[in-house]
Amino acid sequence: MIMRMLKDYCGLWAIAVAALLVAPGAWAVPSFARQTGMACEACHTVFPELNHFGRMFKANAYTVDNLKPVRGVSATREELLALSGLPPISLMVQVSQTSIAKAIPDGVGHFSQSSSVAFPQQISLFYAGKIAPRLGAFIQLTYANNAGTIGIDNTDLRWADNRLLPGDKSLVYGITANNNPTVQDLWNSTPAFGYPYAGSKANVSPIAGTQIDGKLGQSVAGVSLYAIWNEALYGEIGTYRSAKQGVANAVTGGSGPLDGTVSNVIVGGAPYYRIAYEYLWGRHSLSAGLYGATFKLVPGGSSTAPGTLSGPANEFRDTAEDFQYQFIGDRHLFSLAGTHIREKMTLNASYGAGLGADNLHDDLTTTRITGNYYYQRRYGATLGMFSTTGSLDTQLYPAGASPGVVTSASGLPDTKGWMAELNYMPWLNTRITLQDTQYTKFNGGGDNYDGFGRNAGDNNSLYLLVWFNY
Amino acid sequence: MKTFITTVGAVAAMLLAQASPAADEITPEARLAAQHVAVMTCATCHGPQGRSVAPKFPALAGQHPKYLVAQLEAFKSQTRGDADAIGYMWGMASPLSDEMIAALAAYYAAQTPVAGSAGDAGAIARGADIYANGVAAEGIPPCIACHGPGASGTDDYPRLAGQHAQYLLKQLRSFQNNMRNVAVMHGVAQDLKANEMEAVAAYLQSLGSR
Question: Which residues of B touch A57 (CB under 8 A)?
């Protein structure tokens, strides 16, 4: 099996090597690096994982720069414009190949191919950098090959300022407007920029995940206030509203307001909070924190089966802990990060026969821990474990019809497994990753988890990714 | 030994002597512009008013202006070549004009120096001894000869008191490997042992601690 997979990769390796051969010889770095004149390692251990300075750069609204601005002043020489001489534009390209252990059945005796080439898997255009003094943005526009369309991806607009407090303590404070809970966070232990940093879109996705764990990305908009005391104690409080993309009001055809043709709409505002403490000593840093949000979602409907946005709502109360340790040596880098998310559901809208949930109250718990090692920021290895477990609910996690695969015969959401990665970075902005995912449990079971003969291990995958940022 | 120290001093003074505008030659506009850059850009690493928190980044508050000018010019001309200088400061310093460099130096020089932080008492005592007396057996001159009593520096030599030990240690290693292109400190540091460097760094960091 492994030999066959490796053989499949030969073609892509050739592409990767060819791409490297034509890559420019300069120290090619994306827009933050161009804006600041600093190399990638100023902000990252290895991208996208941030180091302490990277976290402070983000908290300071991405505004540190060394570019000569285009200026505008009033008659009294008040500053009206300080526009960067160069727009902070970057491009990200991912090409990949995924082999899953067993091809996907179609239910009538046929199978898919077992491997899948994505060329590209994703192309993203970023505006990432300063807009004006104290104001900056990270805006990502993405073409994803599974959707075949270009759409808005992670976005974080920030304003920030800093102060010196009595006793020589610093205070950085600001506002972020963003479209994905935790995308604004400074650590890589929270979901939006947590491990895995990249994954195959050709893999079989587990049936369950908590709301804060990426489920609402790009379909909400939130505003938070945050502050960091002495580069150590971080606090943030905010609220999220539904801000769906690609939907229109059924009557007016306008981009809103949302109506019953849209599903899972937040009632009012969903409160979000975050607190974390980071301790620095020598070349080490250790952070630990809490984060969470409560989302009240009305089920709504779809354009073909409209529902209502009034009436009972399903409440998802997510509370999580996280930690991150980093050692940044001259040759060796090591980081360990983890999070534990608990979701308590009160399914007022979906509880009842035929409505979507067997139970009024369900729980879902996700745990992820990942360790990364890099030698000279060039050769890396990663080992991670993941686990999602939760309540038995045969409507929420349905058995479904043949061919199964994405369903759960047991009505349990449990998915557990391991990920291992080998990374090679010929340049700090170019990564070649070989990622192996092994499931010990998938959608509630090990063997025959879907009731149609598929085992958890059949979804194991080997994923080769070539990732450029420039 | 005395001759060595005198020679060291003379060479260092020559190396550090840079043509930079005196503090009173800096225009009010340049002062304002430098304050703006210091608050908006430099503070991200070096902290508000040059009082850095992360031990990787040096505190600049109260540093002598001639030294700051010399360093910014070394970053700009890419002659200070330790890894963090290349990674962070080459880019940051590249667009700075002579006037801005002088004004930034004046801004940080005018700030009240940072208070140090205490550490391992044994290391501090050993460091204090090396600082005051050198290590005669290894031909290492006393640091106090240039950096002065209390390590507050002089017009020609940087203030070291209260500086982060991690930063100082990294710089001593950089001098040792001749990455900072300062012949005098390369000469002084090349025979320093790891535990001696750690002791001196711990002592300097502790100075002025409350």
Answer: 44
